[in-house]
Amino acid sequence: MQSGGPITASTSAEKADFEEKRQSPDFDDVPVCDGHGTEASPYIVRWEAGERANPQNWSLTKKWVITATMATATLAIAFGSSVVSPALGELVRYFDKSVTVVTLTISLYVLGFALGPLLWAPFSEQWGRRPVFIATYGLFAIFNIPSAVAKNIETVLICRFLAGFFGSAPLTNSGGVIGDMFSASERAVAMSLFSAAPMSGPIIGPIVGSFMIENCSWRWLFVAPILFAFVMFVLGSLVPETYAPVLLRRRAAEYSARTGMVYRSMFDLHSSFAAPLTTKLKIALVRPFLLLFKEPICLLFALYADCFFGAFPLVYEYARGWSPGISGLAFLPIGLGTMLAIGATIFDNKRYIRKLAAAGGVPLPPEERLPLCCIAGVLLPLGLFGFAWSSLPRVHWIVSMIFSVPFGFSMVAMFLSMMTYLVDSYLMFAASALASNAVLRSLLGFAFPLFTRQMFTKLGNQWALTLLAFIALAMTPIPFLFYRYGPAIRAKSTYAHQYKVPPPAQSETAVSPTVTRTHSLEEGMMAPDLAKDRRDDNASGEGRESSQKDDHSPEGGSGRD
């Protein structure tokens, strides 16, 4: 495509993708000029339209390979949190400690999930997704080793916390990776398929662990996550960087070194990226807390997601006398609900694309991600009430398992809707938004196992589950409220992306001039010689008109990267 000529988006999805990238983040204060290559007036380095180095323009095959790799890496971490749960009785006998102390092997692992994202999410936004993944995942694999060979419970507890702390990076940052690569029309499907992995970990873990503990030592339940983690560390290390601000900053530094001129990434002209390093770190470390406690979106959705944790195998192992291995199979209907939720999310995304086309390609507000969450919010208390009173020993076990399907469906459907909603709402700060949500979710996940047995013992299985069902019922209106009032809430937000939507009556033909003009501005903000370099690289053998290079062209006017 000839640079500087008319550029139009041929489909509604392409227009929406372009409009979203053009508006995010808001660069209204960025000067639109070529610059002079000086500190006072640097050349601006931006993405060119269709540039293949831009992760949004990578092939679908490459995007899905990366998504599958990151999903499996998170599966290994989620698997490690629950695979040891069937071994708690063995650990009590081996270390001669109380059930509460031994349960900390699970709780402290999840506590690491709460504290780790406070560092890893903002660090990924400062230095990139890839270096954070390599550093943290390697340490996650290493800190699993002492638990498998420990001679005392203290070693197990400390190393389980550290494993969870370092393993939390992919759990939050992988959502940012998907936001980096996929457009608005693709993101829901990508997020739903990606999220199947970490949501499946707590389901697969107890099933595998239950059968392992019947046939081998409890230490093998710690060895399995170690082997899984080291394999995924090698594969994950092959994933390239996806975060656009880091990629453009590296390119600007390369151009500055090669030419002696001053180049700046378009992101570094924005106040959120141009602050001194110490200021950036301070902001980065407190941003998830700010999002959690000052942004109603993050706080209420975190509360909504985090009030529901069940100890389903307890119902079958203690009330029905099943073996640990067989009782672990109680998670399979929840897994079925998970698969149904993923299918429903993919189907709902077709509705999203139809509305996108009807809007002429104008980006839809994040609230369009919530209809499925509203449906799941109604089904969740129904599933919990049904499961509670069908779990009586005199009622056939198949009835309670049937009711656990809508429970699994609702939890996963809500999770997927919320994650996509947060990514759409915060875009460039998506990792911090997901981290703020993970903080509260993990804190409750840390506390819940410590009193689950006491709650089920004192209240009984039926009333303990009924209590959770009433909590779910009380939280049902939340997604409906966000669907109705979300735009007004985002308008008052410091970090949320503001969708600049033109009047609905505007026709598709009226959108094209805006797209054409903005592409030209993006090209104009890059120095002429580098703009041509980028066009030459994108041509891949296709004929293009040559343009004269300035005397400061990289590598003595070669015009190539």
UniProtKB/TrEMBL annotation:
The reply to whether Ion transport figures as a keyword in the UniProt entry is no
Single GO molecular function: transmembrane transporter activity
Q: Which segments carry the region annotation Disordered?
A: 1-35, 502-561
The UniProt keywords, alphabetically, are: Cell membrane, Membrane, Transmembrane, Transmembrane helix, Transport
Gene3D superfamilies associated with the record? MFS general substrate transporter like domains (1.20.1250.20)
Q: Carries keyword Cell membrane?
A: yes
Q: Where in the cell is it found?
A: Cell membrane
**Which membrane topology term applies here?**
Multi-pass membrane protein
What is a single Pfam family found in this protein's UniProt entry?
Answer: MFS_1
One GO CC annotation: plasma membrane
* Comp. bias intervals (Basic and acidic residues): 14-25, 530-561
Q: Biased composition, Polar residues: where in the chain? A: 1-13, 506-518
The family annotation for this protein states: Belongs to the major facilitator superfamily. DHA1 family. Polyamines/proton antiporter (TC 2.A.1.2.16) subfamily.
What name does the UniProt record give this protein? Major facilitator superfamily (MFS) profile domain-containing protein
Q: Which organism is it from?
A: Rhodotorula taiwanensis
